[in-house]
Prior knowledge:
homodimer; DNA-binding; 11 strands; six-stranded parallel β-sheet
Amino acid sequence: MVTIADVAREARVSISTVSYALTGKRSISEETKKRVIETAQRLGYTARASARALAANRSEIVAVTAPFHPATDASAHMAFAMEITIQARAHDYDTLLLVHDDALAGMKRSAASALADGIIVLDVSANDERAHVARSLTCPVVFIGVPDAADGLVCVDLDFELAIRLAVDALVEHGHRAIALISQPKAIMQREPNFPLRMEREFARYGAQRGLHVVIVHPDQDHADTAVAELFARQPSTTALVLSTTTGVVDSLDATLAGHGLSIPSEISVITAGMMTPSYASQQFDAFPLEPQLTCPVAVKQLVELMAGQGPPPGVTLVAPTYRPRGTVAAAPITASTP
Amino acid sequence: MVTIADVAREARVSISTVSYALTGKRSISEETKKRVIETAQRLGYTARASARALAANRSEIVAVTAPFHPATDASAHMAFAMEITIQARAHDYDTLLLVHDDALAGMKRSAASALADGIIVLDVSANDERAHVARSLTCPVVFIGVPDAADGLVCVDLDFELAIRLAVDALVEHGHRAIALISQPKAIMQREPNFPLRMEREFARYGAQRGLHVVIVHPDQDHADTAVAELFARQPSTTALVLSTTTGVVDSLDATLAGHGLSIPSEISVITAGMMTPSYASQQFDAFPLEPQLTCPVAVKQLVELMAGQGPPPGVTLVAPTYRPRGTVAAAPITASTP
DNA sequence: TTGAAAGCGTTACCAT
DNA sequence: ATGGTAACGCTTTCAA
């Protein structure tokens, strides 16, 4: 393999000159700089990562933990992991993938061995074990998502409550006054997850504030049928739905509404808030979606700053969702606004 | 940070003794070994990855390239990347994620800088650029999937043709004699993809060999409707379907068949071959699926051997699929076997 | 069975 | 503007 010494000899300069010419960490005369770079390219020189890491005391690697409980959506994880990787590369970092039950041990290991300069934590749950681990580590950690005990941690997440308000606003603008929120299935709600609860509260609060008729329902299973039946039973005047639920419910909604003789958007408007939108879904709804492109760049930027020793103080950064219109929100039907 | 010198001093042995006691690369008396390990634990010592990599000339890292063209199924990639990571950890390797258009440059970079000891290539397409790159690298590369020009490469893949035969066998065992293959949508077939074409050929060949009535159809879009209509038009006696297509087609099949007055499995049997089975799918069919758990362990094992300098010669290793019965294959209806 | 010391290839400090 | 060289922390050869 070709080392920095080879380049130095060939370019008739010292080793340090090569290093500086290539890294640009100190000024080198244009002439020698050019000669060094040319020589390096000709010899096919690339600095050895391990040597560089040892000497510079930084690996230029960030670890990404994506715990893989089967219940979680693999495609969502991948989208986040991919986006993190892309963003990290933009800052000249590579990403190490930590998965499975190795996530906890992996965090400790990659920090203790200085394998990674920093860690991104994905798929954060309410009482995430990784929160405790993060505090015990000396290397910077950024969470995408907010655990219950977020004190002392750097977290980035979508502003879910804002997503709810924006979704409601979009519907109200079209004249809807009776709106239903289809939230997570009962099985999930029993675990009292952090954000679904907060979104429901915000939906109720903001609906009342704007003087709307609102109702919140939870699907029985991963299907829309019971939820739709319940929401019309409890609030027959409903003309619009806000969705913040599972993909199974979303996928089955179109057919379920058709079963009630309702078509989208002429008779009922639909918008999602704070949800991932799988690209393979047959029906795409208007959305304020949970997009990796929103949170990941922010998270990586914060981590990079942290690794440079000048990061932000601990705290939660909420990112505003972006509207993705897809034609499933229309004016409220006359019949509904009459009574 | 605590170094090997700290441990050596504290344990009153030399640095090399600590190294050997911890790595087990040469015999150390039980007594000192125990003392060293105890001391290391007490001080919280972990070898610095960069120093180890520099001295030993190996990083204990494998790179995984998962190019992310939007057309590909993110959840499939994730499943593979996860499984690779899990398998790699079982061999004490970490995995570096290479994505996007950075895949090509990333392979070169991680090899040139000795960042990774080996590379796993995922989502291999027929004429994959990465095949050429792989040949030019000095570090071992294992492909999961088989490019057209596979000479000189180490590849691992599912035996798709066997999957087709096994699926047909399973149907024939239940008395089916008229079988249709729903293959990839026309848009995909126009690119003349490697395996779908080979599976169609094998389906036709094997069907003929077993004296069956067979027909092959391609969906118009990512939906089953036109394909189902066409297959019954061309072969009304059809009593069973083999699926090797997209998730959209699979998801819509149940409803489409119902529209034809057919229910699964009493009136028509369905089995998939060589497909990923998304866990979120509402309808789960009998399957000889494409599972990461099948190919990834083999691929990682081969790569590990290669990195140890004693790997297998270039060539393609095909892995047999496993039957996943889910109750969608039943005896052929009488009406069909009569004529 | 153990120790001393020579690398491994860079970075970065101290000179010039 | 450039060069010499001491770290960086570990593995591994060579001696004892």
